[in-house]
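Lesson 9: reading folded outputs for more than one chain in a single document. The general rule is that every protein is listed as its sequence immediately followed by its structure tokens, and records are never interleaved. Here is the first one.
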Amino acid sequence: MLKTYLPMVVLVGSFFVASRSAASQEIVHALTGSVSSINTAQGTMTLFQDNGEKSTFKVMTSSKTPIAFDKKVAESTVDATKFDKPGAYVVVFYFGGDDNRTAVAVKSLGAGPFSSITGEVSSWDGHSHTISVTDKSGAEHAFKINAQTVAETYMGVVNGLKFDIDKGDQVRLVSSTKDGAPIVLFIRQE
């Protein structure tokens, strides 16, 4: 009996330890805006968000902080400590609340031009990765989502190809045009 009891205790204990360490990870979220300043001496980055607010982020310097950050998304970013382009239009990846955000990584969205829309999802096709959004005026806009799309969900950041949403949900998205087709660069469930 002891032979079956001991492995069971070890198994249950390892599940407990694994769940405790997973629960203590910081969830990485994202938002878009223009970098207004970078202060390397203070370890901060200031961003003018698309919503008009100005936010200052601490820059994460310790790689010992456990974070939950989608690996596909992380591959296309620059570590926040290495980002040095004030004025760039970016996606900032962070954890923490409104008053104590810590920037983990940054993804420059390039030169633009960019479009932004807020509205209701009128259609979503997860297989072909297309989304249509109806804006406040009632106009419908169709977009393509690809592997470079960053999706901010209630559970954190995911790669655009993993994104899933329902018709009727509210979203805000930032897009650009590639080969004549509007491509979503960033999408956020509202």
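And here is the second record, again sequence then tokens.
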Amino acid sequence: MSLLASAKGGSGDFAMTPEGTYIARCFKIIDLGTQKGSEAFGGKEQHKVMVSWELLDNDIKMDDGRPFSVSQFYTMSLHEKATLRRDLEAWRGKKFSDEELDGFDLKTVLGAYCMLQVVHSADGKYANVNAIMAHKGDKPTAVNPNVSFDLDEPDMTIFDSFGDGLKLKIQASPEWEMLQRKAEAPVIAAANDKFPAEDTSSMFDDSPINLDDIPF
């Protein structure tokens, strides 16, 4: 599964989320496939995933009454230095066992509650997750449906619901290119069955050549 993280390897029409600490619920996990990193860090290719939370505190809502949301991009790794591992352990309130580090299905956290601290970037353009903590109090009612997208088992109805920017990001991955090749293979095979290659063997004369007929 593309959403299986291990220790062995490596949006939308929402208004900007205000800074603060909130009760949050994970409602979206999107497999982005292999993405090229920033040139400032060597441009290394890594498997990426987007995790999104809805903020369910009653005192902050968007103008239309929907909850604010915030997303974080992670490298799909549970290496000891990986941000995903750090945040998941803070969220769980405990360390991963050796068995869990062999392969943890990230979809396990879909629908799980936590406390999120949200801060704005220095230029004021982005709301970022600064810290995640376990939440053990009352759990407000969920608003958004749970959504997961896995490039190993892609649900194209879910993909079609994404914004253009997210679609383009996923489509830039080699995993997406592989999906397109798999989708095209049956079509090409069917076309070959319908229009088989012409037998050209009769166009060539295999009889011996009379060397006396060659002019030089």
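What the second record shows: The chain has one domain: 4-179.
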